Model the fold of this input.
Amino acid sequence: MSSEKILIIGGGPAGLEAARSIADLGGDAVLVEKRERLGGTPDSEGYAKLTHHWLDASEVLGKLAAAVTSGKGVDVKTKSEVKKISGSAGSFKVEIDASGKAESLEVGAVVVATGFQHFDPGRATQYYNYYSFPDVITLTDLEKMLKENKVVRPSDGQTPKKIAFIQCVGSRDRQVGNEYCSKVCCGVASKQAVELREQISDSKVFIFYIDMRMYGYWEPQIYWQAQEKYNVNYVKGVISEVLQKGNQLLIRGEDTTMSRPMEVTMDLVVLSVGMEPSAGTRSVAQLLGVQQNKYGFIEAGGATGIDPVGTSQAGIFVAGAASGPSDLDDSFAQGGLAAARALASVRRVIA
Amino acid sequence: MSSEKILIIGGGPAGLEAARSIADLGGDAVLVEKRERLGGTPDSEGYAKLTHHWLDASEVLGKLAAAVTSGKGVDVKTKSEVKKISGSAGSFKVEIDASGKAESLEVGAVVVATGFQHFDPGRATQYYNYYSFPDVITLTDLEKMLKENKVVRPSDGQTPKKIAFIQCVGSRDRQVGNEYCSKVCCGVASKQAVELREQISDSKVFIFYIDMRMYGYWEPQIYWQAQEKYNVNYVKGVISEVLQKGNQLLIRGEDTTMSRPMEVTMDLVVLSVGMEPSAGTRSVAQLLGVQQNKYGFIEAGGATGIDPVGTSQAGIFVAGAASGPSDLDDSFAQGGLAAARALASVRRVIA
Done:
């Protein structure tokens, strides 16, 4: 028995867009999301404004989630997980834990949109002392404070006046095993630097970077603004360690533009942590038997080698950060392409 | 009268993917392409290998074009141009010059995939002397020679041994009006540097850059390879002029990492020219009345502000480089999303 139903795993930007596109095209989708809420990482980690649109993350994701849950065509199962899958393109048998109840269903195609998780800066970059010093935080820790419009030093609740971002923490790093660039951290850090300058008007903000990867419109919309309007200081340099000095943090490294060693004190240090495959991406890839790359992301390319949403298995598609570092535009666009491919594949089998 | 037919303008990667997706979903598309051949810029400018897939460009685009022309659902009109369009979502009246014959048709939605053109380095960057010195060429000039496996100095037909790429020519440049980053030139130059090192084994290749924007997998797949396996020399520096010195080229600038002025001679200088809206993108935008941004690209975002393929007009969608700098993955993914949106929009109107 073949089925026209499409299983979407993951309710973040890519999964929601895939679901909406399938429903809009008259298809029949089941969306399985582990968390109680839809919205993916932007929701779970409390993103403030989106990079690069400067729109409110909750509002944008909320509207998309509402369109999916209120419309026809998508059966949304939150607090649910895929436990087992068998079969092949056109006819997969899926076993789901749906809020504690076992369910089974038949689907004709699968869209994997299980996303990423942030690199844990304690794991292999302990020279930054994330686990030892409370005022060493990550992009996601800062994002939550920016959303509340209440940025303070965790150690003493004071407003920080000198703040440094350290880029490429857990990215472009052979030692930790993540050789890829996480694509969005330059943009996100710069966006946060602007928000910091807006929220703490007498702050000084520094970004220590290898290359500022502000591609496309991020260049004028974020990078130039950050420098010219918000006086964010960009320093090409490598930070080798973060130490405590009194109640401040001492960062040590090399200013590569000035070709000299550098030691500066900061009130708050923000680690720009990169993307890694989420636990869900790893486990779903194994469950489905789709090929993963050496980093654990799902290998995209499909049969042609160039299909951004194709996987090693017919009838199984991938969208968004489950296949590697992606920005929001990538996730939406790939969600749409995966929807088109999945829907075409089930209709072809039926026809 | 409303129509389910969808007009796709442009037969490059984004337009072809949109056409294929619409056909795969049982839709009805007309693809209008100005040139005699499909394949867009990768075809017209004779791309050798694709960035970052390292696959043969003609082969990949050829297969995609064949799928579109040989399948059902897409009426392909080459050597054709849209001359006039009126109406609104669900019912547009289109007048076409189809290989010299006037035709008119009704469509329910439009996908604009009219792409980009390369920046003309003679226009405002004459300090590089593109029009004066034959051995100052562009990425696209070099690409054609790489495809033929015959890279020579245009001045004397000799094989160049010292080759320099100058990045960001016509990008990130307020003076020429292109403030944005063209996104792909770092990857393309690095890919070409690798190909040069493969084709001319005793060559030395230099890339002068501001930031190397090798996002995502381009970092390990191209950038690291170029440095470690192919010994491409990356120099963070700004080149201010290119002069003739005997039968060589003298490039002058500043090595910003070494903080010193720099004067080096080269056999061949390659200008990494960025993306600008194609003439077709500009004229089609005006014809359709969709909003363009200050650079002339079509403004994406749609009603929500975050739709990568939405325009200022209902029923009109944009995919690929017509809305700004895009890599091949972007073009394919956006082609699919635009197909899904366009098809949903015409079916909604009909239902």
The mean pLDDT of chain B is 95. Residues 119-274 of chain B form a domain with the FAD/NAD(P)-binding domain fold (CATH 3.50.50.60).
